[in-house]
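Working notes for the structural subgroup meeting. M.R. asked for a predicted model of this chain before we commit to crystallization trials. I am recording the input and output together here so anyone reviewing the notebook later can reproduce the run.

Input as submitted:
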Amino acid sequence: MPGNLLFSKVQAIWERSSPCILCPRQCRTQRIIGELGFCMTGINPHIASYGPHFGEERPISGTRGSGTIFFTGCTMECRFCQNYEISHERVGHEISEKELSNIFLHLQNQGCHNINLVTPTHQLPAIIKALLIAKDAGLRIPVVYNTNGYENPDTLRLLEGIIDIYMPDFKFAYDETGKTLSNTPDYPGICKESIHEMYRQVGDLTLKNGIATRGLLIRHLVMPGGTEESERIIRFIAEQISQNTWLNIMDQYRPAGEIRRTCPDGYSYLLRQVSEKELSHVYRIAEEYGLTRGLEY
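Returned structure, recorded in token form:
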């Protein structure tokens, strides 16, 4: 992407941050003067940790690891979040855009296959500015946008040509589930529109020597008692996105974060792990819809 076009995108994303309309909540917080919105995050980069990560999907981690940066705060409030300290309690520290760009270059120099931005949405202005600095200094590995799926499609459109690999979650198929478990009143519809936009930009996941270089990879965490929602999500991906979508059906749900202390009425089944029967059922559904790319038992 030409430097002047990338710079214009940086400017447009900054304009969306104050009053803030970066995410679907559009809380219109004046972050540039220090106000904090839903995400409780200021305008400067705020990170919890970074380094080569070998626990991502095979095409992302590869043999040398994914250059992962965990950003603090979140646009959702998942009661069961396994990174609760980072997303809810906002453990971490503030750095400068220049320091963030140096982290990108350091991870590339370590041999990482990509730059993996974990929960980046609410920190996009600083991230994109840091990417601009890093690209001018020689950053050349793919950039991964690792997101909860609760995105503003208008913001995503500004990322075209900047993000190489989109890696969204698709968590819930029902509005009520998202509202109760994540404080998102409109998650399914927003997530569908966002994934459509991601796919329009990058298409199916493309690999070179087994490592992802571009495309869409979707994650779905199977929830206890949630196989019906899983089927709805799988059907949407197969029928409205692509049967060639790389889908990671995840089995690592466990009662974590707030859910252990204050489980909502009617959701007591979330106090257990997913059963083998439930997981096998969801795998079978994916196979029936032809979504076999990425299935690993």
